[in-house]
Specification:
Shape: globular
Number of helices: 1
Structural class: mainly beta
Bound molecules: FE2/S2 (inorganic) cluster
CATH architecture: 3-layer Sandwich
CATH superfamily: Rieske [2Fe-2S] iron-sulphur domain
Radius of gyration: 13 Å
CATH topology: Rieske Iron-sulfur Protein
CATH class: Mainly Beta
Helix content: under 10%
Largest sheet: 4 strands, antiparallel
Order of helices and strands: EHEEEEEEEEEE
Number of strands: 11
Strand content: 35-45%
């Protein structure tokens, strides 16, 4: 398990990750998609577990789900659980937002 720190304050994170805009960041040798909905940050794999479509242009709904733009499979942003469709779960990575910025934990 490895922890990565982004920014040095909450303000840095608000500027770095505008609300509802999915950004891709490189953490070590892994690319991770990062999304902010209000004050909550989610980190997850940037490609859909179904057929590999980019999730950077995915949609979200009011149930904290991300919706793949290609076949509209839905995944829980907190757990990665598949909510509609048939494929493996989406990888999600624990995030912790504090006064010193954002910490994302990546399993090794
Ligand atoms: S590639 Fe994402 S739902 Fe098919």
């Amino acid at each position: 398990m490895r922890e990565f720190q982004l920014g040095n304050s909450k303000k840095d994170i608000w500027e770095m990750i505008p609300e509802r805009k999915i950004k891709k960041v490189r953490l070590g040798d892994k690319e991770v998609a990062v999304l902010r909905l209000k004050d909550t940050i989610y980190a997850f794999e940037p490609f859909c577990p179904h057929r590999g479509a980019s999730l950077l242009t995915a949609f979200t709904n009011s149930k904290e789900e991300i919706i793949c733009p290609l076949h509209q499979y839905r995944f829980d942003l907190k757990t990665g659980q598949v909510k509609s469709g048939y494929c493996r779960e989406m990888e999600v990575y624990p995030c912790s937002l504090g006064e010193n910025g954002l910490t994302i934990t990546i399993p090794q």
